[in-house]
Amino acid sequence: MPRNGVIAFMVATRTREIGVRVALGDALKLVAGICVGLVLAVLWRTAFKD
């Protein structure tokens, strides 16, 4: 197997791994943001209930 192919394969694998980690990080941030928003909405509603 040519060395260039091995290097290209390693770079592609690493790039995909980084992309997956970034996507997971963004998804976790999004979920955390939604959860915080829901908690704040519930607290706001209970604090200022008529």
3D architecture notes:
This protein is mainly alpha-helical. The protein is 90% helix and 0% strand. The chain contains 1 helix and no strands. The protein has one helix at residues 3-47. The chain starts with a helix and ends with a helix. The model has no long low-confidence stretch (mean pLDDT 90).
List keywords for this structure.
rod-shaped, mainly alpha
Per the principal axes of the C-alpha atoms, what is the gross shape? rod-shaped
Average of the residue pLDDT scores: 90
Strand content: under 5%
Q: Identify the quaternary structure here.
A: single chain
Largest sheet: none
The radius of gyration computed from the alpha-carbon positions, rounded to a whole number of angstroms, is 22 Å
Count of DSSP-assigned helices: 1
Order of helices and strands: H
User: Which structural category do the helix and sheet elements fall into?
Assistant: mainly alpha
Q: Count every beta strand, where a strand is a DSSP E run of 2 or more residues.
A: 0
- Runs with pLDDT <50, length 5+? none
Helix proportion range: over 70%
